[in-house]
Specification:
Order of helices and strands: EEEEEEEEEEEEEEEEEEE
Radius of gyration: 16 Å
Strand order of the largest sheet: 4-5-6-7-8-10-11
Shape: globular
Structural class: mainly beta
Distance between the termini: 26 Å
Helix content: under 10%
Number of strands: 19
Number of helices: 0
Strand content: over 45%
């Protein structure tokens, strides 16, 4: 959802397209994509979206409805975030233990997230501060969530939750607008904090 423009951004196949849906005016703007899309993320300030593909990321200007750049990435993109800090972060879909791909938009250069490995197929969500993102793993039991620091560009794995099977996460999460609550797909709610002891 692009709050700045009050539109919904989706991707679909076939054909390979990004859709900018304006429900109030009943308008569907279309952007053709060169590859099959796997996921989409919108920048917090609106105006731009990133689309994941197998081996590529498309950077789309939502105002002009143009693909401005296509970046090569060394994975089949399962999920991604576009935090508005000059980077896009992509999670691999396969190969079990992996690292987040960090693409610098200005250069197209790829870096690997540092710290612990993550599970391929992790769902990620940007924290409203823009300084961090959280990920919910899939395919592991018990399920868990992790936190990553992106203040210096390349993502750094910080830590996972203090729970190990005490609460179900369910493979996806959403963060409240004030950044204080993490809502898991399981229906459980958790606290987000700058303090490790309270996060």
């Amino acid at each position: 959802y692009d709050r700045a423009s009050d539109v919904i951004v989706t991707v679909g196949t076939p054909p390979y397209q990004l859709h900018v849906l304006d429900p109030m005016n009943r308008v569907d703007g279309e952007v053709s994509l060169a590859y099959a899309p796997t996921c989409v993320a919108v920048a917090p300030g609106g105006g731009f979206a990133a689309v994941g593909h197998d081996g590529y990321i498309s950077y789309v200007n939502l105002d002009t409805r143009v693909v401005e750049e296509v970046y090569e990435v060394s994975c089949d993109v399962f999920d991604l975030i576009l935090p508005g800090n000059g980077w896009v972060y992509a999670v691999p879909a396969i190969d079990q233990w992996e690292r987040v791909r960090c693409i610098q938009l200005a250069t197209g250069e790829e870096f690997l997230q540092t710290g612990s490995y993550i599970r391929a197929g992790t769902r990620v969500k940007l924290h409203p501060s823009g300084d961090y993102f959280y990920g919910a793993d899939n395919g592991l039991s018990p399920s868990d969530i992790e936190k990553y620091d992106i203040r210096d560009g390349v993502a750094v794995y910080l830590y996972d939750s203090p729970y190990h099977g005490d609460y179900v996460f369910g493979g996806d999460l959403w963060i409240s607008d004030d950044g204080l609550r993490i809502l898991a797909r399981s229906g459980n709610a958790f606290r987000a904090s700058e303090s490790v002891a309270e996060d």
